[in-house]
Design goal:
The complex is a heterodimer of chains A (338) and B (669). By secondary structure, chain A is α+β, with helices and mostly antiparallel strands. Chain A is 27% helix and 30% strand. In chain B, helix 3 packs antiparallel against helix 4, helix 5 packs antiparallel against helix 6 and helix 10 crosses helix 13. Among the domains of chain B are: 153 residues, no CATH class; 72 residues, no CATH class. The chains are: A alpha+beta (338), B alpha+beta (669). Chains A and B meet through helix 1, helix 2, strand 7 and strand 8 of A and helix 5, helix 6, helix 7 and helix 19 of B.
């Protein structure tokens, strides 16, 4: 269950607003000057010195106007973030080595456009102290977006999925420096839902030999007899009677006709087929590649791992079950904190 | 620390606006700095914008462009040093700043550079105020600050979907919301007098005013200036125009051509015999870079100044230790009718000095008068009659005098301005053995009915004489009055053509339009005067006066800081409330009406659940309260018709029904 986080707004945090319901969690909004804000402060000091030295009223006025501007900007920067409701949506699985995208739904229901909201991954430990001390540092956001008034806005946070398994985005810092870049207001979102990372598809091995199906009792040259469903490239061991001789006669290459039905190709992918490979991850990668190929060739396939067996089938759902079984194989939770 | 990601990631739109802001901030400087800086600055801006619009720009550390720009920078700085002989000082500093701003724009590649460029722009705005602080400048600079802030807003809109107008609106909102705290800081921030450290030497060049010597042409130069010399605000009654002799420096020494002050001869103030009631007034003196003040003949005492020492000399000049380089304000009292009979040793001898070899013809004329047996007083009258009855003219453009100025003027050209008459008269007096001196200052002034004060312009500059008479003591004699009485009675304005007053052509057609123009310019001057009094001239003294109005005469620094913090906190809290309050906006009138309806029902114990549609709720409510069923169904039908059938014209009907819906709370089924 994903929770909704409300970025708190001072000084009205004590009262629950209508927008909140029971599943919300409050999260404080912090604010500190950026380094540009610090430079701005230095410039104001220099201006004030000049104004005092020359006793120049207009210089005083401009100095005071800009000082006051920075106060007002502080409020506006805070306002740009406070009061927003953030919910994490489920992330679609990715293959290792790809970018995982963690979607967030920004529910901006109090009538004002919020601009340039940025997101960055952060460490959970000491994050507040570190962020306060390094507020003047430059941060490159992993994603940023605007939140239109009175709508839901979706933003995808890209995180590199290095290993298969469950990828946790961990703690995300949401921040903004709008409108003037003099202050940075920020808050934290603890991402509760991990993203499933399939193994990286890789390997050189051919499909294992087709399984002897019980119904027909011949070696799985693996075709049914009912309806013609297409061609595929000839592989050693295919039945001669299935070869598309007409195409061969036209010098198009050697193809095998395929038919649907219970006697169709049934590919049994098992741990034993890859156990010769040097390590577990390579095995999983090879199995992953096979599953993808089998799916793309519309083959029926089953998967057998030491602790899991997934029966023959095909289709997106089946592929997902197989791939997630691979992803979960001897799982270590991949947490960026550790 | 470099960040590859931000490199060349400066949104081109915000760069345009930043460039625009910087150009706006530097433009007023273009006449104050060496002529080549502005074109160089503009060239750098345009070049940068051109380069930025070319997308595929490969950045190299030491490209030919970078080297060229570096050389340009070095040459530029050398050029400024060569031109001013220094890199400090007001103008040299500004030139340097503009040059650096130009190069900063050129090398904007990182986020940081953009901010530095923008802050430089804000700083350049301040430098403009060192030269001028008029209302016009303030408005112009406000626009510049708006443009700079706009560019910052645009730069921070990383998604880049704000239009210039929308960014401008945000920037304007921010600036407008900053004004209250700014005003508090402005009026309450403790002001100190005097500079913290030295000012650059050239800080006050280019101020106009009366000089401390007089030669033909020196005053008629000033006459053409429309600038304000000072403003005087009379406490009670204002003396007549012909009595408005504003006394400045007193000239005692002549070399035949030029009259000058003798600085060494200052003695303490002599006493003044007053014959009338005093006239009290406040003078707001524009900076004129000279070490004297102006007061009506004759000042009773030296005024108290907030930052300077002042004193009065025996010939009633009001002097300060340092030149007046900023607008000052002082209260002073004068006595229009007076008698000065007290002398210091040798005062009369000095007032008889004449160059030996010059003014032969004049001396001969005086000799002739003396031989006729005229007394000293008669000689004074005779000389004035000469100006009045002979063919003398009062003119702004007298013929050029080449040799003996006085002789030529008296016997040949007979056309001159006040300095000619004053110097000729003083020479005649001295030749007759009557001690005489020349007083420089202003005569007359324009009454501003809008602000109820007198404006004295540079064109009111005047020179007159004082002679020593046995009984009366030092007596003011204005020989110009003998030639052109109008000049004194009605003021210089009547003696000068309209174009001197900058009356635009459109207004100078007839006397009515000229009057309208005058009215407008009085209004404008009154506004300017308020601006000067309250904004530009707001210093320690003014602050004390201002706070005194609220009973805070003796407020000290720490209390002022406390007040600032208290007021700022109040405004800040108010703004926080306005900005951060989460008002659930329910601008939908139909929904509001329906909510009212639900609220009335909930008082009877029938609560509307969030997941419940209106029809389902109505049927449930109707079954629970059969007595209200028809009303509930009616309102729900209208609501559904409006909501899902777009029948907006039924809103009044719904409003009526909801208002009339008064369910009784005690119902037992």
């Amino acid at each position: 269950m994903s929770e909704t986080i409300v970025l708190e707004q001072y000084p009205f945090s004590a009262r629950r607003t209508a927008a909140e319901n029971r599943e919300t969690k409050r999260q404080r909004v912090y604010i500190m000057p950026t380094r540009h804000g610090a430079v701005f402060g230095l410039m104001l000091f220099a201006m004030a010195m000049g104004a005092i030295n020359y006793n120049n009223s207009m210089a005083y006025i401009l100095t005071f106007l800009l000082s006051s501007l920075s106060l007002v900007t502080l409020l506006h920067t805070c306002k740009n973030l406070a009061g927003i409701l953030i919910t994490q949506a489920p992330a679609s699985p990715v293959f290792a080595g790809e970018l995982a995208k963690f979607p967030l739904i920004l529910d901006n229901r109090n009538g004002q456009l919020r601009l340039s909201i940025a997101f960055i991954k952060t460490k959970k430990k000491w994050s507040l102290l570190v962020d306060v001390l390094t507020s003047t540092g430059n941060e490159i956001p992993i994603a940023s977006c605007n939140a239109d008034a009175n709508t839901f806005n979706r933003v995808d946070l890209p995180v590199k999925a290095k290993q298969r398994g469950l990828l946790h985005a961990g703690r995300i810092k949401v921040f903004t420096t709008f409108p003037l870049g003099l202050f940075k207001a920020w808050s934290y979102i603890d991402m509760k839902q991990p993203c499933l990372v399939y193994p990286k598809p890789a390997g050189q091995k051919y499909f294992p030999p087709f399984k002897l199906t019980e119904d027909i009792g011949i070696q799985g040259n693996a075709s049914g007899t009912d309806d013609f469903i297409g061609f595929r490239n000839y592989r050693a061991g295919d039945s001669i009677k299935d070869i598309a001789w007409k195409a061969y006669a036209q010098h198009k290459g050697l193809f095998v006709k395929r038919f649907s039905g219970s006697g169709a190709d049934k590919l049994h992918l098992s741990w034993d087929d890859v156990s010769t490979l040097p390590d577990v991850e390579t095995c999983l990668s090879q199995l992953c590649l096979w599953i993808i190929e089998a799916e793309s060739q519309s083959l029926q396939y089953s998967l057998e791992l030491p602790e899991v067996f997934i029966d023959t089938g095909h289709g997106e759902e089946h592929q997902h079950r197989c791939l997630s079984a691979l992803a979960h194989h001897n799982i270590k939770i991949i947490n960026p904190e550790k | 620390m470099t960040h590859k990601q931000t490199k060349d990631n400066i949104p081109i739109n915000s760069l345009y606006w930043l460039g625009g802001g910087l150009v706006l901030a530097t433009l007023p400087h273009s006449l104050r700095i060496p002529f080549w800086i502005m074109p160089l600055f503009l060239a750098l801006c345009v070049w940068k914008l051109y380069l930025s619009s070319q997308k595929q720009l490969k950045e190299k550390k030491f490209s030919a462009t970078n080297i060229l720009v570096f050389i340009l920078l070095v040459v530029g700085i050398t050029g400024i040093y060569h031109h001013f002989g220094t890199l400090l000082g007001r103008k040299a500093g500004v030139s340097l700043l503009i040059l650096l701003a130009g190069f900063k724009i050129f090398e904007i590649n990182h986020e940081r550079d953009f901010y530095v460029g923008c802050f430089l722009g804000y700083f350049l705005v301040v430098t403009n105020f060192l030269f001028t602080q008029t209302i016009g400048t303030a408005v112009y600079m406000a626009c510049t600050v708006l443009v700079m802030t706009l560019s910052l807003v645009m730069f921070n809109d990383t998604q880049g979907n704000l239009s210039a107008k929308a960014s401008g609106k945000i920037a304007a909102t921010l600036l407008l919301q900053s004004i209250p705290v700014m005003l508090i800081l402005f009026f309450l921030f403790p002001r100190i007098s005097g500079p913290l450290w030295g000012m650059p030497d050239d800080a006050h060049s280019g101020l106009t005013g009366i000089d401390d010597e007089m030669s033909p042409g020196s005053i008629s130069q000033l006459i053409l200036s429309n600038k304000v010399a000072f403003r005087a605000d009379f406490k009670n009654t204002q003396p007549e125009q012909s009595q408005l002799y504003w006394r400045g420096p007193v000239l005692l020494h002549t070399d035949g051509t030029t009259w000058s002050r003798t600085k060494s001869e200052y003695h303490g103030a002599t006493s003044l015999q007053t014959l009338t009631d005093p006239v009290s007034y406040t003078v707001t003196l524009e900076p004129h870079n000279k070490e004297w003040l102006y007061a009506l003949d004759m000042p009773g005492q030296n005024p108290v100044l907030e930052s300077k020492q002042s004193w009065m000399t025996s010939d009633f000049q009001l002097l300060t230790r340092k030149p007046v380089t900023r607008r000052i304000r002082y209260d002073i009292t004068s006595y229009p009718k007076y008698r000065i009979t007290e002398l210091y040793d040798g005062e009369l001898q000095i007032a008889l000095q004449l160059p030996q070899q010059q003014h032969g013809k004049t001396k001969a004329l005086i000799h002739k008068w003396q031989n006729e047996g005229l007394s000293k007083d008669q000689i004074i009258n005779r000389a004035l009659r000469l100006f009045n009855e002979d063919d003398f003219y009062y003119t702004l453009r007298p013929p050029l005098l080449e040799n003996d100025l006085v002789d030529e003027f008296l016997f040949e050209t007979k056309q001159g301005f006040c300095e000619h008459y004053a110097s000729a008269f003083a020479v005649m007096m001295r030749a007759a053995g009557i001690p005489a001196r020349i007083v420089l200052g202003y005569q007359g002034g324009e009454y501003n009915p809008v602000g109820d004060y007198v404006i004295v312009h540079q064109r009111n500059a005047h020179a007159w004489t004082e002679v020593w008479r046995q009984e009366q003591g030092w007596t003011r004699i204005d020989p110009t009055a003998a030639v052109s009485p109008l000049r004194i009675i009605e003021g210089i304005e009547s003696a000068l053509p309209n174009h001197i007053f900058n009356v635009p052509l459109v207004f100078s057609q007839n006397s009515l339009t000229i009057k309208i123009w005058q009215r407008l310019s009085f209004r404008w001057d009154a506004i300017n005067n308020q601006w000067n009094q309250w904004i530009i001239n707001y210093g320690p003294k003014r602050q004390k006066e201002f706070l005194g109005q609220f009973g805070l005469q003796d407020i000290n620094w720490s209390s002022m800081i406390f007040l600032i913090m208290a007021f700022t906190a109040v405004i800040f809290l108010y703004l926080t409330c306005v900005l951060l309050k989460n008002v659930p906006r329910n601008n939908d009138p139909v929904k509001r009406l329906y909510n009212q309806f639900c609220k009335k029902l909930s008082r009877c114990g029938i609560h509307h659940d969030v997941y419940e549609g209106p029809v389902a709720f109505a049927s449930r409510a109707a079954s629970e309260r059969s007595d209200l069923a028809s009303q509930i169904n009616n309102i729900t039908d209208i609501y559904v018709a409006i909501r899902y059938g777009s029948n907006e014209n039924q809103i009044p009907a719904m409003q009526e029904r909801v208002r009339a819906f008064r369910p009784s709370t005690n119902y037992h089924a």
